[in-house]
Amino acid sequence: MIHRIDPAERPNTFHELGLGERMLKSLESVGYESPTPIQAELIPRAVSGNDCIGQAHTGTGKTAAFVIPILERIDHDSNDLQALVLSPTRELSEQVANEARRLAVNHECNPALLVGGKPIRNQLNALQKGASIAIGTPGRVIDLIRRGALDLSKLRVVVLDEADRMLDIGFRPDIERILRSCPTERQTLLLSATLPPPVERLARRYMIDPEMFDLSQDSVATDAVAQYYCTVEQHKKFGLLVRLLVQERPQQAIVFCRTKRGADGIFRRLEPRLPGVAAIHGDLQQRVRDRVMKEFRAGETRLLIATDVVGRGIDVSSVSHIINYDVPEDCDDYVHRIGRTGRISSDRTGRAFTFVTPKEGNELTRIEMRVNLLLDHYQIDGFEAFQDRGPRPHVNDQVEEAPEQEEFYVA
């Protein structure tokens, strides 16, 4: 059953969602004043125990939409593991765990974070102490099941967060093995930005009469982010990036690249000249990625050069600008990238820029069709984005000196 509630009929307060007093006090203590659309629609049905599918873009409050029902439905006097959340990446799992800890301020609950790249001993200790909620990546969860350290027999709720991305990166066999190990009598919640056929097949096989809440049209892409494209030749992208940063002076920005090599290349060219710049991608050791994200969240890093490893689920509300140095390979990745700005926790409109080469006109059209919006053309006075005549210059000729920090960033 697909639910599309008239926005005028959605509950406007958390008090209307059937939540207990402890949860309402927790929401007040963390500053949650009113539910987002996905929260207003999903939470009441999830609290009642129904299997639910929530489709909504990033930045719309999906994490709280499933964490709140978990905290409402589990027995906080029990030491049994009662809820399991599966996420595609370590970073997203950590974000979910942090949100669960925040919202459990009035409950005796300390979620166990089960991810690779972290000492497994600490995770074993967390489980042995009786964690009621486990949040982790499929690979580490499978590892702990094999070790006999993770007992799923008492689970009440299973959540598949960012299900489309988990399937995209090859976690389907692990997910199915985990679900087969869970009790048949359980609640399953599936959250996804898109519902491609593989996700639908997974839902049909492992969920019982799920109710679907489609909030995908309530996109942050058009409501909270001003979107622009910049036409530029490939070899002049770096010069454009420098000029764009000087002109825009972002509070905090993420520059997205398609490849790890590309991200490292931009970082190496900016780092000697620009304070507060860092790079993050899948080849970095986990401790390095953790440090980079910690410094970015703290505002110590102002410019983050990234691949799509941080394209989903990383909630840093101070990000003011997104720059797609490379057009994303998939239109949905575009939505996830620009969802890093204009977050629901921010009162500012974000700004997103996409660099488009002459050969990428079709990609731009597909993006515009995806977000149902014609992006505005952004130009920088005095910058020649195309080589009009003569031989193409060597790439090193395009290095533009980075100005001082105060010229790059909002003071």
From TrEMBL:
Tell me the domain of life. Answer: Bacteria
Single Gene Ontology MF annotation: RNA strand annealing activity
Keywords, alphabetical: ATP-binding, Helicase, Hydrolase, Nucleotide-binding
Instruction: State the protein's name.
Output: RNA helicase
PANTHER family linked = ATP-DEPENDENT RNA HELICASE DEAD (PTHR47963:SF8), DEAD-BOX ATP-DEPENDENT RNA HELICASE 47, MITOCHONDRIAL (PTHR47963)
**Which E.C. number(s) belong to this protein?**
3.6.4.13
In the record, the note on similarity to other proteins reads: Belongs to the DEAD box helicase family.
User: Single GO cellular component annotation?
Assistant: cytosol
Q: Write out the ranges of the annotated region (Disordered).
A: 389-411
Q: Where is the composition biased (Acidic residues)?
A: 398-411
Q: Which residues form the Helicase C-terminal domain?
A: 240-403
Q: Which Pfam families match?
A: DEAD, Helicase_C
Q: Which residues form a coiled coil?
A: none
